[in-house]
Amino acid sequence: MQEPLLGAEGPDYDTFPEERVSPSSGERTRVSLEHSLDPNLSLTKTQASWFGSVFTLGAAAGGLSAMVLSDLLGRKLSIMFSAVPSVAGYALMAGARGLWMLLLGRTLTGFAGGLTAACIPVYVSEIAPPGVRGALGATPQLMAVFGSLSLYALGLLLPWRWLAVAGEGPVVAMILLLTFMPNSPRFLLSRGRDVEALQALAWLRGANADIRWEFQQIQDNVQRQSSRMSWAEARDPHIYRPITIALLMRFLQQLTGITPILVYLQPIFNSTAVLLPPEDDAAIVGAVRLLSVLIAAVTMDLAGRKVLLFVSATIMFAANLTLGLYVHFGPKPLTPNSTMGLESVPWGGTEQPLVTSTNYLTLVPLLATMLFIMGYAMGWGPITWLLMSEILPLRARGVASGLCVLVSWLTAFALTKSFLLVVNAFGLQVPFFFFAAICLVNLVFTGCCVPETKGRTLEQIESFFRTGRRSFLH
């Protein structure tokens, strides 16, 4: 879900200097465009920064469109529809002859990403049995991380144009596989297609499964919510409470710092004088992220959502605090003015000892970042998406999920664009201390506001918000 670094403004960040440079065919598309034979694709650092940022704006627009498409076309068709802007975007980037084609391509792929980010969790939660909904709900995040690592590996072998072409492959595979999947039974029932809904549920649960009780429960819930929700009803606690919880979870998830940390991963490692090459550090962090999401998928239906959220926030707090303290008191690089640095002055205005090649203290940023990624991927990464799809009321699920994605990506865009400004003005330690404080807020928020949904049907969860009875949560 996160888009890595392309370039950004700052006194020491001169990967893209003000004069025009040429794009390099051996680098990943999202990292740089150097040594291109086409002068129309030469980017200033400001243009490169926007190339990295328009993805988040496109994703926000995709979330906005999901507010309409998810209920209009249904979850499955909305996901399939996302293939249109995705294919068009990758084709524009692969055949780009000017900056506008690159920017438009990135925006379109971002739009597709935002649309699927809103629709896939809802679709998965509506078709999954309660006992494995957590594991299945974590698979989109798992596949996203696996895809990022795969593209990272391909980027070492393929020119950036062919890397854009390779992006078409998963889109085609998604379309082919979804043609065999049924629509969500809940969506079909909301459209009065009861026979199709029964057939879809029977297909999903297997030929020998007894689906009568589950189908009746879903049908009763849909019939109670057959009419369109009015603005007056939106003020009812059983409607606005779950929506508010979902929105705040998406907002707080981004404020933990996941997007700027992933986007500026290699520059952060360069600025904190890590012992290993930054490219190796980034690959290690990606592998840790994949393993951690896999752990979350396995344990989510056993340990429960809230336990993992508590553990996740605690780990992220410790990691962000460690990074902030290391930046403020730890060693500084021998070459602070490297092209990948984030700032040119000592952090916090204090003099730190210069790092040497044998100073193993420089492993701290890598270990702390791995700890942060592990904590995020175990809880606040996949679980916030899952809970969004679980707690939102059926009548507002399409609109509210799109709104959650919109809030999430707008927050990501704001954080990414402001990160370097804060670093250059106050020092690299300040964002980490801020992220650590947000993790403490997440702990309180989880304890006070987030319900445990492990092993409960979507109808039981909705009944809890409607009646206020907590019996099913224990």
Automatic annotation (TrEMBL):
Q: Main localisation, per the record?
A: membrane
Q: Where exactly are the transmembrane stretches of this chain?
A: 48-70, 77-93, 99-123, 135-154, 160-181, 255-276, 282-300, 307-329, 363-387, 399-426, 432-450
Gene3D superfamilies per the UniProt record, alphabetical:
MFS general substrate transporter like domains
Domain Major facilitator superfamily (MFS) profile residue range list: 1-454
Q: Topologically, how does it sit relative to the membrane?
A: Multi-pass membrane protein
One Pfam family assigned to this protein is Sugar_tr
Sorted alphabetically, the Gene Ontology BP terms of this entry are: regulation of glycolytic process
Q: Which InterPro entries match?
A: MFS_dom, MFS_sugar_transport-like, MFS_trans_sf, MFS_Trehalose_Transporter, Sugar/inositol_transpt, Sugar_transporter_CS
GO-annotated cellular components: lysosomal membrane
The protein's location, in the record's own words, is: Lysosome membrane
Give the matching PROSITE patterns: MFS (PS50850), SUGAR_TRANSPORT_1 (PS00216), SUGAR_TRANSPORT_2 (PS00217)
Classify the source by domain of life: Eukaryota
> Which NCBIfam families does the entry mention?
SP
Q: Which family does it belong to?
A: Belongs to the major facilitator superfamily. Sugar transporter (TC 2.A.1.1) family. Glucose transporter subfamily.
Q: What does this protein do?
A: Probable sugar transporter that acts as a regulator of glycolysis in macrophages. Does not transport glucose.
Name recorded for this polypeptide: Solute carrier family 2, facilitated glucose transporter member 6
